[in-house]
Specification:
The complex is a heterodimer of chains A (116) and B (107). In chain A, strands 2, 4, 5, 6, 9, 10 and 11 form a 7-stranded mixed beta sheet that branches. A 4-stranded antiparallel beta sheet of chain A has the order 1-3-8-7, with no helix packed on it. Chain A contains no helices and 11 strands. The radius of gyration of chain A is 13 Å and the shape is globular. With 116 residues, chain A is an all-beta fold. By secondary structure, chain B is an all-beta fold. In chain B, the strands form 2 sheets. In chain B, strands 2, 4, 5, 6, 9, 10 and 11 form a 7-stranded mixed beta sheet that branches. Chain B starts with a strand and ends with a strand.
């Protein structure tokens, strides 16, 4: 079955770059869209952006200047980089598969805290 | 961007009762691309409904979605113990994708 697992540091310092990887099993990352979504404490879910395996990306305009999403088909994984982080970027980060633009399978999420 | 407003924020019900959850959009959602998700603590969100009214694979028929344009509803006809969770609506018809604030269904 389709499984997604987020991994990366749970603590990042302000002004540094947050880096996360989503390892996908049970399906090839080819032929689907792959998204990152986050939820800060007490706030609603926020779509960060997505990537098609070919490398085509789409980002939320609110984060576009700081975000890069990339994919590695040889490892069947995709990644998120968010630069110049502040405490407002503290959130549970989810990766998900998109059937088109519809997120249909999600990882369990990983908490990333931005603090010195 | 399309803003989604869910109501009520919390729904207190008993097993066997009917739950009606609302999601209202700030503008019409293209192609009624509205989805509903269930999330339980520590678990991945689970897709329930897509395209406003189509059930995802494995979702029981006591859950149903309806609506079009700007007003959508998720109905759980008879609550089972496993249905007590937080539910989110999400639109995927217009970028950026956006989510509602969630409705908690509690006992």
């Amino acid at each position: 079955q389709v499984q997604l697992q987020e991994s990366g540091p749970g603590l990042v310092k302000p002004s540094e770059t947050l880096s996360l990887t989503c390892t996908v099993s049970g399906v090839s990352i080819r032929d689907y869209y792959w998204s990152w979504i986050r939820q800060p404490p007490g706030k609603r879910l926020e779509w960060i952006g997505n990537i098609y395996y070919s490398g085509s990306t789409n980002y939320n305009p609110s984060l576009q200047s700081r975000v890069t999403i990339s994919a590695d088909t040889s490892k069947n994984e995709f990644s998120l980089k968010l630069g110049s982080v502040t405490p407002a970027d503290t959130a549970v980060y989810y990766c998900s598969r998109g059937a088109g633009w519809l997120p249909d399978y999600w990882g369990q999420g990983t908490l990333v805290t931005v603090s010195s | 961007e399309i803003v989604l407003t869910q109501s009520p924020g919390t729904l207190s019900l008993s097993p066997g009762e009917r739950a009606t959850l609302s999601c209202r959009a700030s503008q019409s959602i293209p192609s009624n691309y509205l989805a509903w998700y269930q999330r339980k603590a520590g678990q991945a969100p689970r897709l329930l409904i897509y395209g406003a009214s189509s059930r995802a694979a494995g979702i029981p028929d006591r859950l149903s979605g309806s609506g079009s344009g700007t007003d959508f509803t998720l109905t759980i006809s008879r609550l089972e113990p496993e249905d007590f969770a937080v539910y989110y609506c999400q639109q995927y018809g217009s970028s950026p994708l956006t989510f509602g604030g969630g409705t908690k269904v509690e006992i």
